[in-house]
Amino acid sequence: MVMFSGYENFVSRIDIDEDVEKLSWLGKLDSGSLKQKVAASIVAISSIHLLQKFVNADQVEDNKLMWYVLLHLTFVISALGMAWVDRINRK
Question: In a 10 Å sphere around its CB, with 0-12 CB exposed, 13-18 middle and 19+ buried, how is residue 5 labelled?
Fold first, then answer.
């Protein structure tokens, strides 16, 4: 999704014949929504990693666990900030 949308947004339109099945999202994602999808994916990956650390919390030092949480919160706040800025720019 990221590869096709990035190509279509920044390089050239992908022309697909009308008789060929076309992906419904192709041509509808702009750079802002693509950026939000990538940020949401990073937050999801970070959430899974953080959950893994909490499941094995007895093997992880408290100091490191705190840094994992702070790093995850940084990803979340960054994603929310980018979405907020994108919303302001659309108005």
Answer: buried
CA nearest neighbour of 40 among 87, 83, 84:
83
Structure token digits, residue 28: 């509808």
- Domain definitions of the chain by residue range: 2-90
What pLDDT is stored for residue 66 in this prediction? Answer: 93
Percentage of the chain exceeding pLDDT 90: 37
CA 58/CA 43 separation, integer angstroms: 24
pTM of the model: 0.67
- CA distance to 23, 36, 50, 78, 83, per residue, from 70 (Å): 38, 21, 10, 12, 20
